[in-house]
Amino acid sequence: MATLEIHDLHVSVDAEGGPREILRGVDLTVKQGETHAIMGPNGSGKSTLAYSLAGHPKYTVTGGTVTLDGEDVLAMSVDERARAGVFLAMQYPVEVPGVSVSNFLRTSATAIRGEAPKLRTWVKEVKEAMERLHIDSSFAERNVNEGFSGGEKKRHEILQLELLKPAIAILDETDSGLDVDALRVVSEGVNRVRESGQVGTLLITHYTRILRYIKPDHVHVFAAGRIAESGGPELADKLEEEGYEEYVKGGASE
Amino acid sequence: MAETIPAGSTTDGVIQVGQPTDARVSAPASYDVADFPVPHGREEDWRFTPLERLRGLHDGTAVADGGVKVEVTAPAGVTVETVGRDDARLGKAGKPVDRVAAQAYSSFEKASVVSVPKETVLTEPVRIAVHGEGGTAFGHQVIEIGAFAEAVVVIDHTGDATVAANVEYLIGDGAKLTVVSVQDWDDTAVHAGQHTALVGRDATFKSVVVTFGGDLVRLHPRVVYGAPGGEAELYGLYFTDNGQHQEHRLFIDHDTPHCRSNVAYKGALQGAEAHAVWIGDVLIRAAAEGTDTYELNRNLVLTDGARVDSVPNLEIETGEIVGAGHASATGRFEDEQLFYLMARGIPADEARRLVVRGFFAELVQQIGLPELEERLIAKIEAELEASVG
């Protein structure tokens, strides 16, 4: 049973005039099979948490620990984290010119699974996963994220989630910029992975809208670089009605 | 590309694209080295080249010592000759356009002429192996393809040498010539030269220039059309490593109606002192109605500090053409791209390989020579291995 444990995590970025602390002591435990929604206003540090867990070089961990089943995640390189089972669905997926989606998916699956998937079953697996996400088969030959619309990029992220089957899935504002139809398709994809019971999900979002499709077990309010309040799904209802005002007044430093 | 630099610019900052009116045409062309002043580096056609690394090829101090071996292997039906300077077939494709090319033309003692008789269709390539053994040499090669003949010629440059050598392609009416010139020199070699093709009526010329090696390589692939209906495809691929200077200066002279040209050069660079230069000059003269031309240059900068100068020039003197266009872009392999691929479990070196292979794949397929395709891919892998590993 995979468990991601974040303890007293402090993270800074380089800014004009020296390092600026963004995460100020995050504590969170995500177990396989659980879904945690992390909600918060802009600038609260939600995305920083996501990217820090994935190991983006822009962020410097200045304190605290992150472990996956006891293994020190912070000591791992970006690719090692991914192979250990951490997956980040990015808010702004990156264009990679010259690399086709099919080549990318296969290279990635080979790295994650430790061996090249058998070609025949792999082609079928990808085709079916693409169909479920309403992704046209011509996408396989396009360059990764190049010229994709916002919705196409997000569906492509969830396609990877479905194929790579991580232990911990971090979804960074996967809902932003999606219309209702796309949101439903994407949410269905996430739910299929969740239903396996094999993934712990960290759903980072600004809006409560996606929580109508993806039901969280736990809801955390993120403000000023740490978790300000935790609760069950009812906390989302409260945020829906009252917004983040209470938390913004309470603690944000800027 | 994540970062696209517009045509006529360099990675070090935008440079002026405009040249003095019609620099290419007004530039001197002559068989005699004495007609060219010694360049000092400020001249338009020398400003990207580190003259001090030319080992005297540009200022008359280089002395030939014969340390370069040339071997020609040709299938039956092909004539291979070594001829003196007075042979009538020499110099027919065009005059040298810079001092080093003129130095080569003024200095070679014997030239090699490979002739494919008319209507002969070769099933095997002609292979010309140029191997440097540490010496300095001036050379001249003519490849003559008779009317309606078809041939593939592969010129391989290996070893260490200081070489100034010109190649002429004389392509008869309706003939088809594919030439692959591979600069797979040791990293100490210096190679400069002019490759000029004279394309006959309805003839087809395909040139593939592949530059991996050398301390300094500076080539002028040039095309002139002798009669209407000619077609030229010029493909190029270079992989410029730390410390290498690789320069390709193309000129297509559309002086005749109803000819076509298509240029696609792609290069990858890695290492702080890697420098690639691509100049793509296309001139459509007033008489060249019905011309169809396109040129493209793409560069992929893999590491900080590598420098690309990519300068396309298109000059059009008639509006009665089918099409004319050019594109040049230099992209960087960005940290964000690396992060994205690594976040999917792909190790850094493999991520870089994936991107470079993808970058070259389309061009390699376009070249359409299966044997070369495999060799190119293997070579690209080796280049990556050497630097990434």
UniProtKB/TrEMBL annotation, chain A:
* Stated name of the protein: Fe-S cluster assembly ATPase SufC
NCBIfam families linked? sufC
Q: Where is the ABC transporter domain?
A: 4-249
PANTHER family (UniProt xref): ABC TRANSPORTER I FAMILY MEMBER 6, CHLOROPLASTIC (PTHR43204:SF1)
Q: Does the keyword ATP-binding apply?
A: yes
Recorded hits in InterPro entries, A to Z, give: AAA+_ATPase, ABC_transporter-like_ATP-bd, FeS-cluster_ATPase_SufC, P-loop_NTPase
Iron-sulfur keyword on record = no
Which UniProt keywords are given for this protein, alphabetically ordered?
ATP-binding, Nucleotide-binding
Task: Tell me which family the UniProt entry assigns to this protein.
Answer: Belongs to the ABC transporter superfamily. Ycf16 family.
UniProtKB/TrEMBL annotation, chain B:
Q: Record's Pfam families?
A: SUFBD_core
Q: What SUPFAM superfamilies has UniProt attached to this entry?
A: Stabilizer of iron transporter SufD
GO BP terms: namely: iron-sulfur cluster assembly
Q: Where is the SUF system FeS cluster assembly SufBD core domain?
A: 132-359
InterPro entries per the UniProt record, alphabetical: Fe-S_cluster_assembly_SufBD, SUF_FeS_clus_asmbl_SufBD_core, SUF_FeS_clus_asmbl_SufBD_sf, SUF_FeS_clus_asmbl_SufD
- Organism's domain of life? Bacteria
Indicate the family of this protein. Answer: Belongs to the iron-sulfur cluster assembly SufBD family.
- Could you tell me which NCBIfam families the record lists for this protein? sufD
Tell me the protein's name.
Fe-S cluster assembly protein SufD
